[in-house]
Automatic annotation (TrEMBL), chains A, B:
Stretches assigned to the Nudix hydrolase domain: 36-159
InterPro entries: NUDIX_hydrolase-like_dom_sf, NUDIX_hydrolase_dom, Nudix_N
Protein known as: ADP-ribose pyrophosphatase
One Pfam family from the record: NUDIX
PROSITE patterns named among the record's database cross-references: NUDIX
Signal peptide: none
Molecular functions per Gene Ontology: catalytic activity
Amino acid sequence: MNFCSNCGAAVELRIPPGDTLPRYVCRQCTTVHYQNPKLVVGALAQWEDRILLCRRAIEPRHGFWTLPAGFMENDETTAQAAARETAEEARARIEVGELYTMIDVPYISQVHLVYRARLLDLDFSAGEESLEVALLREDEIPWDQIAFRTIGMTLRYFFEDRRRGNWPFHCTSLALPPPAP
Amino acid sequence: MNFCSNCGAAVELRIPPGDTLPRYVCRQCTTVHYQNPKLVVGALAQWEDRILLCRRAIEPRHGFWTLPAGFMENDETTAQAAARETAEEARARIEVGELYTMIDVPYISQVHLVYRARLLDLDFSAGEESLEVALLREDEIPWDQIAFRTIGMTLRYFFEDRRRGNWPFHCTSLALPPPAP
Ligand SMILES: [Zn+2]
Ligand SMILES: [Zn+2]
């Protein structure tokens, strides 16, 4: 951040009065520009014993597989975000169920949420951000080609919980970035 | 938003290629400035049969009671945010437990999280944003002077769950703004 989005003057990084952290503060209109973590919301949509997965057509992780998920928008709920992302990336309609995982990713200032969901019909196809969309059984999932760690964790929780026959809410955090390739 | 925080030129509201919603886009450097919901994180800290509450010294809702809570910062986890807000607003140390409530507040583009927590000692006091801090029993809580609906809901869930002796995770949303005063 270099300029004030309110008045266009230069900003400087300093600790505002009564605050504890450095913020971008406008030198002219004194607006304090806070920066906050982002929510990424997705859906684990089931059809019988299969899960709806998308292969990414965009960076980061072009060509890798993921659950439909993306940045939450203003004016929507987390459940609406899960359904919207599924509609956009997999052109699929779901009934959103319970919140299933919440995973903090502090080193990129994100919080990832995944809802369990029920796929409503088989009329799905790749959206603009997907190369392909598929319904995959556990043994068909390309485990070494999953785009994001939080998605891989969510999928592993799912198949473990299905074997155990109960569905706890999983809440955890990733303390460290992934190792470099 | 009037100006680009990257280059200082004027922004315009338009739908970028491949997108579906209007965004603030810089006329000069073409940066797209997304706006996303914010996470508010708090703690419901227990000491025996009492709960730690703060009376607000700032707007909105000056003079009303709340659980220690505030906007999540970059580079922290949600549990760290709960502990930090409790340290700042109630100058209190807690052991953060399970995530207890997640309530969507789409009409102000926020998601509110509250963790259950254990107060570690009785050495607490009002931080800069609080008029006073108190440990209150259920019958001492000023129910008609609670600052925010999500906090009132969380407190009611707590006392109901305590009576029932089980502690489910509560995940819901507030569909409509509160009635005008
Ligand atoms: Zn300014
Ligand atoms: Zn610009």
